[in-house]
Amino acid sequence: MATFKELGLEANLLQAVTDMGFETPSEVQEKTIPILLEQESDLVALAQTGTGKTAAFGFPMLQKIDVDSRTTQGLILSPTRELCLQITNEMNSYGKHLKGLNVTAIYGGASITEQARQIKRGAQIIVATPGRMKDMIGRKMIDISKIQYCVLDEADEMLNMGFYEDITEILSYSPKDKSTWLFSATMPKEVATIAKKFMHKPIEVTVGSKNVGSSQVSHEYYVVGARDRYQALKRLADANPDIFSVVFCRTKRDTQKVAEQLIADGYNAGAIHGDLSQNQRDIVMKQFRTRQIQMLVATDVAARGIDVDDITHVINYQLPDEIETYTHRSGRTGRAGKTGVSMVIVTKSEARKIRQIEKIIQKQFEAKEIPSGMEICEKQLYHLANSIKDTEINHDIDGYLPAIEEVLKDFTKEELIKKVFSVEFTRFYNYYKKAKDLNVSAGDMSDSNSDSIRFFVNLGSKDDFDWMSLKDFLRDLLELGKDDVYKVDVKDSYGFFNVDKKHKELVEGAFSDFELNGRKITVEVSTDRSGGRGRGRKKGRGRDNKGGGRGRGRRDTKSFGGNDSGKFKGKSRRRSGNKPTGGGTGGRRRRKG
């Protein structure tokens, strides 16, 4: 393996490498640094989170810019404030021996006038989030017309967060002959599109395989009932006493709720999500880095700035909406050569998604069981024993020992051990002695569940539905539980969903005469298990308006997927016969004759 000196770094940067304790470059650094130093070319680098991407583009940019000039020469765009600040701090550390270097962070939630003042002082490198950068360019506070290097860091996440138009506008103010370096953990089609649009014959560097998970991370899944998800989380925490983890939830509301529950139950927990102020986020992240918080509950967006190398576990309290996002989540652990564990808590209806994730990350999941109460008691006792064994004696206690020995003089060694350990054992034993078994059999994780029935519905993406919003719509219309509608697939003008057979009449009754925005919506039993066009539907029930047509149901973005509630606007009501009366944006039931 090459050394940093062999990669071509200058003496002042090598000194920073030594100061920071770096010994050998990571694979992505070894592959990209020589290319970026020797060539003026565009580059696409695909590497997992935690592989040292910041140094891979940071050192070459620092070596190439002119620190004697006050002109902005480098721009680094990142998806979140946390990541923006993290990159800025790292760039300053790498360039600590470059006299006159000014690396400025530009992000929302801080004073825009103070940031503009720092730019005026002559920032050779700007690290920015797209939203604030676009705003400051629009106010003519920043001039990037002379930049020579532009980095799109975590490009896939920036596009997932809807920054495509912002990035397009920002780059329109930059020179066409600049070098663009795109770094990403995954390569979805959106990233390929942006590379094609803004880059000229880019060199591609891939560390590992595209979209593949880290080899340092093992993957486990636990199948529980929908109502037992939080109890499962607590048991996983209790079964791993040294846990230092990030717990991922899908929404800001769930993130805050789970964190508050954990704190109320005595865990060192905290939440980080988009509704927190920058000061609140900074406080939470400081507590996490110093291990005052052991369980950080986070949304996917907020977690992009978490750069802590010794996270032991990632817990997927809920699976992400996009399967590719799982790669980013699991990449929070198993960093800097250490191993980590990614745990997934799923219900029976969600278990099939594990197979989909396995195909993408090319890693096998191990099915595991939630520990029983007695197993947790045992692990906690052994943990206490090891903690006592490894504790260094504080000799300041020596003066108190005679009095302590006097109090305990009537007990044998065995009795003392029992008393010490009973303190911890009793606490867990009392809590778990009547605890139920939380495990549920996943059964067949394919679509061929004999207790399930698959329906075709003439609603699809043309009606502004995705799988999550269609699931929410169906759940609310049918007034079923959170996991009673599952295996939802959305095509262009139609979709599929599963319910248990016992709900068959309920579904057919609900849609027997249902309209959405003036269009008749029908459901039909599908015999095509592949999620295809639903051949073998019931006779005499063709689809109305194949493409969705004019007057199709429109999605209310505040009511369907994408917000915290995920509820369908205008909740359905039941009349006689236990049939929903319809509801939602334009949904209504007509009564025949």
TrEMBL record:
Record-annotated DEAD-box RNA helicase Q domain positions: 2-30
Does the UniProt entry include the keyword Nucleotide-binding? yes
The record, for CDD domains, names:
DEADc (cd00268), RRM_DbpA (cd12252), SF2_C_DEAD (cd18787)
Which ranges are annotated Basic residues under compositional bias?
A: 532-541, 568-577
One matching Pfam family is DEAD
GO molecular function terms listed in the Swiss-Prot or TrEMBL record: helicase activity; hydrolase activity
Its domain of life reads Bacteria
Q: Which Gene3D superfamilies match?
A: 3.30.70.330, P-loop containing nucleotide triphosphate hydrolases (3.40.50.300)
Q: Which residues form the Helicase C-terminal domain?
A: 228-378
Which top-level enzyme class is recorded in the Swiss-Prot or TrEMBL entry?
Answer: hydrolase
Cite the entry's keywords alphabetically: ATP-binding, Helicase, Hydrolase, Nucleotide-binding
The record's PANTHER family line, in alphabetical order, gives:
ATP-DEPENDENT RNA HELICASE DEAD, DEAD-BOX ATP-DEPENDENT RNA HELICASE 47, MITOCHONDRIAL
Q: Which family does it belong to?
A: Belongs to the DEAD box helicase family.
The name this protein goes by in its record: RNA helicase
Task: Give the species.
Answer: Patiriisocius hiemis
Instruction: List the taxonomic lineage.
Output: Bacteria, Pseudomonadati, Bacteroidota, Flavobacteriia, Flavobacteriales
